[in-house]
Amino acid sequence: MIEVIVTGKRLEAEGIYSFELAPVENSMLPAFSAGSHIDVHLPNGLVRQYSLCNHPEERHRYLLGVLLDPASRGGSQAMHQQVHEGSRLRISEPRNLFPLEHGAGHSVLFAGGIGITPILCMAERLARIGAPFELHYCGRSAGRMAFIEYIRRSTFADCVQVHVDDGEDAQRLDAVRVLSGPAADRHLYVCGPNGFMEHVLGTARAQGWAEAQLHREYFTAAAVPVGETGGFEVQLASTGQCFQVPATLSVAQVLLEAGIDIPLSCEQGICGTCLTRVLEGEPEHRDMFLTDAERARNDQFTPCCSRARSARLVLDL
User: With contact defined as beta carbons under 8 Å apart, do 260 and 266 qualify?
Assistant: First the structure.
């Protein structure tokens, strides 16, 4: 854990604050690469992941952007209401599950709303190394788009197109046009609301983009319709103990209630913190972390959200 102090809290847009974090001791923060995130241990005991959006060569600070989610489970609400300038927080070292492909001939960046946070860091990096890219920043209105004035004054402003829902039709995102040239050396990066991301990724696939050229980061997992889940059993390989997992609880919840330690963070299958080996049985994958190839092997799953297709899963615990 790294102890940091909040040296700046600024209202960046409607419902979005930025937080500047600096080391408590007069030292440098760990290096990070574009697309990285950190775990933030909040005053209310929750742990949440937030993308780093400042330039990756900066070691004296980390910059976060946090949207107050109306359906907050306590994370964004705590950041907005309980964290202020002068607050001290514990954070993890940066991790990157959304890295840039540095061999790309051209990068196409898409940000929807608060999805600008990792995308902005990517734009900073690509601009610094002189790599060709374009950034499409989409939002409901300019007043709800964080860092928009900073972007307009940046050295890479000419690479950015802003698309707002309440603007003229001519400036709205035409994903088909933008993605009409799926050359082998072009790579696409997208972050934002799930519907926005699926639109961009679906359009890219329809235009012939290969999966290896498509990169995404989810902030929330897709909702599972009520009634499309059932109970099953999990067994611990080390002790042989068996536990029933009802439809109303996750595997992680059942194991934690039984005193079995499971590391948790996002609790939505996004971060991979709770990833657990599966020795027998077939998982029903509901995460946003594993690739399709990793899911097909059925040798690991995320107990915070994923379930079972078979009657029993034997876990390497």
Answer: no
